[in-house]
Amino acid sequence: METVSQLLESISDVGRDTVRGGYSRPVYSTAELDLRGWFVEQAGRRGLEVETDRNGIIWAWWGAPEKGALVTGSHLDSVPGGGAFDGPLGVASALAAVDVLRQRGVQPNRSLAITVFPEEEGSRFGVACLGSRLLTGAIDPDKARNLRDADGNTFADVSRGNALDPEHFGRDEEALARIGDFVELHVEQGRGLGEEGPAIAVGSSILGHGRWKLTVSGQGNHAGTTLMQDRADPMVAAAQIILAVQKTAAAQPDARATVGRLEPIPGGTNVIASRVQLWLDVRHPEDAVTAALVEAIHGKAQKIAAFEGCSVTLTEESYSGTVHFDAALQRQLENALPGAPVLATGAGHDAGVLAGYVPSGMIFVRNPTGISHSPEEHVEDDDADAGAGALADVLEGLL
Ligand code: HGY
Ligand code: MN
Ligand code: MN
Ligand code: MN
Questions:
Q1: How many A from CA of 155 to the centre of ligand 3?
Q2: Which of 262, 297, 320 is the endpoint of a domain?
């Protein structure tokens, strides 16, 4: 029986990013497809029946596919330069938990499925939790089909290239009915679990979060022939906007706002950009406050752009309101894990999308660095195994 660490070790060379460090495993990239292949092979070794649904979600069944099953899973795609655990820890722990349950001689009263959701990070097509949003109908299939990656490929075309028919994307009543309860194990991505004390926590809520794109348009020109006073440089406006984002969020308790991605166009060293795209990630427990923050940022951006002789547009890419997990299921998780702290998370998850449709819950495993979406994300071997044991305890109580 392999430990979680051994399972993760077996994929530790897949999708390494030698430029950024860490891992870059965009959905349907060679790396993520290799991880999908690894999962299918691991599931096959355990005699789990594997199928991929019309939205690209992989289901590995212990027992016949049926309504009201117990489902656990996570994702295999990553952010650019991400850590080894965000996503794969939940999938590897689910495989290890099946081994533990079988070793305990557990005879399930209902089928158990392990799921792998595509595009949880939204790193390639821009919308996070794209697979679970399609499954639940939380995103319009047409919008999903037309999402484009940085190379201009549509999600429809890339999905078609992976044996899916994008015309079948959308809410899947039959698949949703199969989820009686959903539990996701995930690496803790903040400092919620310190070095001392319990290594496992139970999730209670997910902070509301959204993504917006700001496009600042100026006058593209030559870096050498354009006098400073004659410029309308969108990069100069963008720099001030990023500062305004930080100041606006820092002044609002519990708010978080980030510009993690910025693209000058055309992006030449000796070229004054004609426009700059910035992607904004704003989060707060209250949806109305998030909306007010975005409005304030947009207003400041318009003033800054005008001062620099530029203009700015803002478009919403995706939004998920604050989610509280199913109270009864959360209590069952707490009963199965006596002494485990209860943690609200600032990170989005497929469990958060599903929480709006089926009983959904999460458990978190200690990350001693408290850093995530970075190569520094870490889980100690013992804690990883404790996580699989905790997941087995939780699942046993629900089977
Ligand atoms: O962005 C998030 O919170 C998650 O990691 N997708
Ligand atoms: Mn993540
Ligand atoms: Mn994740
Ligand atoms: Mn020239």
A1: 20
A2: 320
pTM of the model: 0.95
**DSSP state letters, 222-261:** ETTTS-GGG---HHHHHHHHHHHHHHHHHTSTT-EEEEEE
Question: The domain spanning residue 237 has which CATH number?
Answer: 3.30.70.360
Residue 65: strand, helix, or coil:
coil
CA–CA gap between residue 324 and residue 131 (Å, rounded) = 20
Domain boundary among 295, 320, 345: 320
Q: Is 75 flagged in the annotation as binding?
A: yes
Length of the chain: 399
Check if 31 has its Cβ closer than 6 Å to any atom of ligand 1.
no
Do 202 and 235 belong to one domain? no
Question: 310 and 255, same structural domain?
Answer: yes
- What SS3 class is residue 154? strand
Nearest one of 397, 35, 367, 323 to 201, comparing CA atoms? 367
What is the spatial distance between Cα 372 and Cα 378, in angstroms, rounded to a whole number? 8
What's the complex ipTM?
Answer: 0.90
**Tens-digit pLDDT profile for residues 271-295:** 999 999 999 999 999 999 999 999 9
Based on the structure, what is the number of domains in the chain? 2
What backbone torsions phi and psi does residue 313 show, to the nearest 5 degrees? -120, 150
From residue 202, alpha-carbon distances to 75, 329, 333, 355 in Å are: 19, 10, 7, 15
131 in ligand 1 pocket by Cβ < 6 Å?
Answer: no
Query: Within this chain, do residues 247 and 356 fall inside the same structural domain, yes or no?
Result: no
CA 41 vs CA 36, 197, 359: distances in Å:
9, 36, 29
Q: Find out whether the beta carbon of 347 lies less than 6 Å from any atom of ligand 1.
A: yes
Per-residue burial over 303-333, b = 16 or more CB atoms within 10 Å of its CB, e = otherwise: ebbeebebbbebeebbebebbebbeebbebb
- Neighbouring residues of 388: CB distance < 8 A, sequence distance ≥ 6: 3, 4, 92, 93, 96, 97, 100, 185
pLDDT tens per residue across span 53-68: 999 999 999 999 999 9
Shortest-distance ligand to the CA of residue 225: 4
Structure tokens at 25: 């495993």
